[in-house]
Write a structure and sequence with these properties.
The chain is about 0% helix and about 55% strand. By secondary structure, it is mainly β.
Length: about 120
């Protein structure tokens, strides 16, 4: 069955960096667009970044210039490099895969990112 396992979350000070990883299994990874969403309590889950099969990327305005999404198909892994982190980036970050295009249909369990001094 499909599994997406996130790692790399934690506590970081404002201005710091984290790199999230998502290891996928149960899918032909190279054929799927992948993405990262985030969610804070009481708010809807929002798209942070997405990457196509051929590594074209798109970003939410609130992370442009600070976050970078990438993938290594040989490792079935997608990454989210987060720099210049702000307290408002605090959220649970979820890895997601697309069924077709950017139609995301499956999410991992999430990893907590907390930005605080």
């Amino acid at each position: 069955q499909v599994q997406l396992v996130e790692s790399g979350g934690g506590l970081v000070q404002p201005g710091g960096s984290l790199r999230l990883s998502c290891a996928a299994s149960g899918i032909i990874f190279s054929t799927h667009a992948m993405g990262w969403y985030r969610q804070v309590p009481g708010k809807q889950r929002e798209l942070v970044a997405a990457i196509t099969r051929v590594s074209s990327t798109r970003y939410a305005e609130f992370v442009k210039g600070r976050f970078t999404i990438s993938r290594v198909n040989a490792k079935n892994t997608v990454y989210l490099q987060m720099n210049s982190l702000k307290p408002e980036d605090t959220a649970v970050y979820y890895c997601t895969k697309a069924r077709v295009g950017f139609n995301f249909d499956f999410w991992g369990q999430g990893t907590q990112v907390t930005v605080s001094s």
